[in-house]
Amino acid sequence: MAAGDPSLLCHPTSPAGPGVPREADQRSLSHEAVTPTGTAGIIGCRHVSTGHSLCVLATPKKRQWGAVCATADDFNNADAANVAATYRFDFGRISRDRQFSGAADSGAKHRYEAARQCLSHCPSERFGFQLFPNFVTPAEALEVLSFCESVSQWERRGENTSNPMPDTARLNLGVTLDRSYRPRALTDLPPVLRLLGDRALEFCKARAWPFACTAIASQRPFDQAYIQRYRAGQSTDACGQTLGFHFDARSDFAELIVGLSICGRGKLLLSMTQGAQECTPQQATRHNVKGVPLPALSMYCLSGMSRYDLRHAVLQEGKHERISITFRSLARSPQPKP
Ligand SMILES: O=C(O)CCC(=O)C(=O)O
């Protein structure tokens, strides 16, 4: 079925289709969506009197409809704070913990489970993600770019694979990493990155983090700066380099992780993926993926569920190379070797 096929639209005057719960008939549309890939679409309906929402998954090939989450919008700020405080480092318990023990409101768990299947409909802030446009000054960006030009030892992962667009070029500073990318020892950060990282952390500490799992205000200074370069695609509609879905090491590094976009632009995707996965522009259109544009000079922050429960991935977009710096603090002060 072609993209834009009007039969994929749930129109207020037309029945939503077989399989939609009866209550849906009493709802009015708040949002319409058609999947570009034609594989599945999500349509949000809002109940006229109660304001409650219903997300309906449409599978156009089979022309089947079914409710996948009745509560994407119902997952509210109080739920998000509750889930973050209850599960902290062990979000796996959400699936295992039938009792949702320790939580004041067991409904919060269920609303969270529903919301993360409909991420494209949810504000990313509620998952502990924050974006600050124009955080980096042009002068800072220029200093970072001259630093990048002065460096020759970029690591290019995956260059010998058959992938036509091998992995990004990377430069790891401040900590040494083992083969599994786990931190081993501390080294000094170059002054330009130390100053930028300190300013970013100070800015973050002065803000409220209602959906974080730990006290961000007591996080130790950033120890690691990880610079990545994403080359642009060969033609305007070609995809540039990507970084697949992953978690940043959850026990080695402290909760708040900050990403600065120094030049070029990209998109960060947040999702509950089954294991690590490559990312493609098509994924950004899925209902269970939240895509957040990352303009040049912006800063994004991962905390709470966006840090510990959802994986993230990055797509380069546009004609120009994207360069980013990811700042991380070690979870514990490094212990001197005996
Ligand atoms: O390029 C970015 O902004 C993201 C980098 C990232 O996800 C990482 O280093 O783990």
Describe the overall structure.
Helices cover 17% and strands 27% of the residues. Strands 5-15-12-17-10-7-6 form a 7-stranded antiparallel sheet. Strands 1-2-3-4 form a 4-stranded antiparallel sheet. The chain has a 4-stranded antiparallel sheet with strand order 11-16-13-14. With 338 residues, it is α+β, with helices and mostly antiparallel strands. The protein is globular. The longest helix is centred in the middle third of the chain and has 15 residues, at 191-205. Strand 8 (175-177) and strand 9 (183-186) form a beta hairpin. The structure holds 2-oxoglutaric acid (AKG). 2-oxoglutaric acid is lined by residues 226, 228, 243, 248, 259, 312, 314, 324, 326.
TL;DR?
With 338 residues, the protein is an alpha+beta fold. The protein contains 6 helices and 17 strands. 2-oxoglutaric acid binds next to strand 10, strand 16 and strand 17.
List key phrases describing it.
single chain; 338 residues; alpha+beta; Jelly Rolls; 3 domains; seven-stranded antiparallel β-sheet; four-stranded antiparallel β-sheet; globular; disordered N terminus; binds 2-oxoglutaric acid
Radius of gyration: 21 Å
The coarse overall form would be globular
Count of individual helical segments: 6
CATH superfamily of the largest domain: Alpha-ketoglutarate-dependent dioxygenase AlkB-like
- What is the name of the CATH topology of the largest domain? Jelly Rolls
**In CATH terms, what is the architecture of the largest domain?**
Sandwich
In oligomeric terms, what are we looking at?
Answer: single chain
